[in-house]
Amino acid sequence: MIAAALSIIRPKHWVKNLVVFAPLIFAKELFEPHQLLTATRAFVAFCLTASSVYVINDMADVEWDRAHPEKRNRPLASGAMSMPAAVGLLVVLLAVAALVVIGMETRFLLFLGLYFLLNLAYSYKLKDVLLLDVFIIAAGFMLRVLGGAYAIGVLVSSWIVLCSMFISLFLGFAKRRGELMWSAHVQGPEQNAPSGGTRRVLKVYRVDFLDQMLTIAAAGAVIAYALYTVAPRTVEMFGTDKLIYTTVFVIYGVFRYIYIVHTTGRSENPTNALTSDLPILFNGALWILFCVYLIYFHSKIFR
Question: What is the value of pTM for the model shown?
Answer without folding.
Answer: 0.87
